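A reminder from the course coordinator: this example appears on the midterm review sheet, so study it carefully.

Given structure:
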């Protein structure tokens, strides 16, 4: 389907969904305008707005139109962005001009494509047409202007823009906004609002007049005119933020349109963050993944699919909603499993096969179970070993008091201590957990020797697939499981690829570019939490005495903390996604967007926009996510800690869970940070593409 149709549908949605006029705002402005003779308005994001979430997203849309017309201008979006920056640099350096013209931008852009000047000219004309097609009027401001005119006020429009005055007149007339007495654009005078010089021209042109100006830009529309005794009102209803995460590729367009239309047609979105994010980002991710999954499952002739752990509970719901089993001729089920439930059965297999624990099991029991600051007492309690039992061992002689903080220099000695002195206690526990796991796996068909089975999980190392493969191999089952994931990390997954069975990824390729590792860190923990299930983590299995079925045992949810948090956040996100997906299934448009436009590339672009270049609101809410950092989910820390680094050693630990989110937060607090530490933090992003690096570190 053509993107021209996509934009047309989005515009039709806006025109049919215009929110009610805020009469309190109208009355407030009319009251404040009583003492002035002129009311001035900014243009973009004040009296009108583009249907794209960010103005620069329009470049990505133009790139798609070029593709649809078989015109290839490589990296058009990024080059168009930089062409404007370069044109401004040249204008200032050569003539100290504060603004430029549209022709100058494309003159520089043309120099980047010396063999494709005809296509650049096509792009130039296309962008102008897209500007006209994507601009919609702010009905609230039109209503206000009509009221002000009735009060005898003169209306002027003042804009910093590179478009010519004649084009701006055409654009305003096109949306019935030719209701002004005079129009001032910076490209006509080469003077800008943000410097105050365009305001000088306005004041000189209107002597003896008093002015009230309304606009969205804090510097250009508020602070600078105030310095010249112009009254101002900050209009924030259409205020946007620049994103560059997807690097202006065409795939970002559906998400951009959905997000903008959601913002300008829905009331009180700030109080509905989680549901709103699910309506857009969540639905795009889940639909694209399930569609991709269907194609893989059909190709691989899978008989049964297991949706793993809490991460895939919502994916299974979407699979069912979108009739995945019917589309693919499969059966499917939700499978209760987590690191807590598989580590002891794996230890039992080690003991049965080798008479001792493997290094992998010891790593799980030690490094993955201890946190900095833990004392020995906390660690052993977490492992399930009592102080009374430890008193019967040589613990005190080897390590000192249980109340001492754990020292990582003892890691090797602790592993040896477990092998030599604790297995007598632990082995029966391992064996019991193994037997219960065996019964549950067998009951759920996981130990079937004939069917082609597959697992679905978010990722990131294929650990569950690895553990179950080893479990099945221990029982003599040679048929491999297949795994389908959002993404896999390239530092561990490739080594497991052929040992544990085929693994495929939808969004993040394990054989990726070097900087993708930095990117992927930004998605992992956000996605894990947004995909949380409606129950605590699985820690084992037991037989129900009434049904005689084996059921999962969950970690105790003290005071319903987990489920209450889930209901207030991630459930709302998932409900929003399901609401959109149901409409798409019914062939309805959502914020003007048809579900047929959604694919893997659109989902990747949406993820990059949110996780790499989050808005203030996203940084606020997603940054509060408390991620479980050890196997049993007993210790959680927020993705963005409010503390700033005090020393060099703090940087890595604070950046760890959401690097781009944290760095963008630090950028906002840059004046409060030690400059040397800020530069040190910025080095972590040196390998990222230039557009994103510049956005993150400034």
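Designed residues:
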């Amino acid at each position: 389907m053509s993107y021209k149709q996509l934009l047309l549908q989005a515009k039709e949605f806006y025109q049919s969904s215009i929110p009610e006029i805020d009469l309190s705002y109208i009355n407030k402005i009319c009251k404040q305008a009583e003492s002035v003779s002129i009311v001035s308005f900014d243009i973009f994001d004040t009296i009108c707005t583009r249907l794209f979430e960010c103005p620069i997203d329009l470049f990505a849309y133009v790139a798609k139109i070029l593709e649809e017309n078989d015109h290839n201008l490589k990296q058009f979006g990024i080059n168009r962005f930089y062409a404007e920056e370069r044109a401004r640099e040249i204008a200032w350096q050569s003539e100290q001009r504060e603004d430029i013209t549209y022709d100058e931008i494309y003159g520089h852009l043309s120099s980047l494509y010396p063999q494709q000047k005809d296509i650049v000219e096509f792009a130039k004309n296309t962008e102008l047409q897209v500007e006209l097609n994507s601009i919609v009027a702010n009905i609230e401001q039109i209503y206000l202007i009509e009221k002000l005119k009735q009060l005898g006020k003169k209306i002027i429009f003042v804009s910093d823009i590179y478009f010519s005055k004649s084009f701006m007149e055409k654009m305003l007339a096109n949306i019935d906004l030719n209701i002004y007495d005079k129009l001032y654009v910076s490209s006509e005078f080469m003077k800008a609002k943000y410097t105050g010089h365009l305001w000088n021209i306005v004041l000189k042109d209107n002597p003896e007049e008093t002015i009230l100006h309304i606009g969205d830009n804090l510097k250009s529309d508020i602070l600078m005119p105030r310095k010249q005794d112009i009254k101002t009102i900050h209009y924030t209803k259409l205020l946007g933020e620049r994103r560059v995460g997807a690097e202006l590729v065409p795939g970002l367009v559906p998400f951009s349109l959905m997000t903008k239309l959601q913002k300008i047609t829905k009331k009180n979105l700030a109080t509905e963050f989680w549901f709103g994010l699910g309506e857009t980002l969540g639905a795009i991710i889940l639909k694209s993944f399930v569609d991709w999954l269907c194609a893989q499952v059909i190709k691989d002739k899978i008989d049964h699919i297991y949706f793993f752990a809490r991460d895939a509970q919502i994916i299974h719901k979407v699979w069912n909603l979108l009739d995945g089993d019917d589309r693919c001729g499969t059966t499917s089920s939700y499978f209760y499993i987590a690191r807590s439930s598989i580590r002891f059965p794996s230890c039992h297999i080690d003991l049965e096969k080798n008479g001792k624990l493997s290094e992998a099991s010891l790593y799980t029991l030690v490094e993955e179970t201890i946190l900095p600051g833990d004392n020995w007492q906390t660690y052993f309690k977490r492992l399930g070993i009592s102080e009374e039992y430890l008193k019967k061992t040589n613990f005190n002689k080897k390590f000192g008091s249980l109340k001492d903080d754990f020292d990582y220099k003892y890691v090797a000695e602790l592993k040896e201590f477990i092998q030599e002195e604790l297995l007598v206690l632990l082995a029966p526990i391992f064996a019991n957990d193994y037997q219960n796991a065996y019964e549950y796996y067998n009951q759920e068909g996981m130990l079937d020797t004939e069917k082609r089975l597959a697992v679905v999980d978010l990722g990131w190392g294929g650990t569950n697939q690895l553990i179950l493969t080893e479990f099945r191999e221990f029982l003599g089952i040679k048929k491999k499981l297949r795994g389908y994931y959002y993404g896999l990390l390239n530092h561990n997954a490739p080594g497991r690829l052929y040992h544990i069975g085929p693994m495929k990824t939808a969004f993040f390729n394990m054989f990726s570019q070097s900087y993708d590792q930095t990117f992927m860190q930004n998605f992992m923990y956000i996605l894990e939490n947004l995909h949380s299930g409606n129950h605590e983590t699985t820690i084992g299995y037991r037989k129900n005495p009434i049904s005689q079925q084996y059921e999962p045992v969950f970690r105790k949810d003290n005071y319903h903390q987990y489920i209450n948090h889930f209901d207030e956040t991630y459930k709302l996100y998932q409900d929003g996604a399901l609401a959109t997906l149901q409409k798409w299934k019914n062939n309805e448009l959502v914020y003007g967007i048809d579900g047929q436009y959604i694919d893997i590339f659109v989902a990747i672009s949406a993820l990059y926009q949110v996780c790499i270049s989050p808005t203030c609101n996203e940084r606020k809410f997603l940054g509060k996510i408390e991620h479980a950092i050890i196997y049993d989910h007993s210790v959680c820390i927020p993705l963005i800690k409010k503390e700033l680094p005090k020393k060099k050693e703090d940087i890595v630990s604070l950046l760890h869970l959401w690097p781009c989110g944290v760095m963008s937060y630090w950028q906002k607090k840059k004046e409060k940070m030690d400059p040397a530490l800020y530069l040190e933090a910025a080095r972590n992003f040196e390998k990222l593409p230039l557009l994103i690096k510049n956005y993150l570190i400034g």
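The mean pLDDT is 93. DSSP finds 32 helices and 16 strands in the chain.
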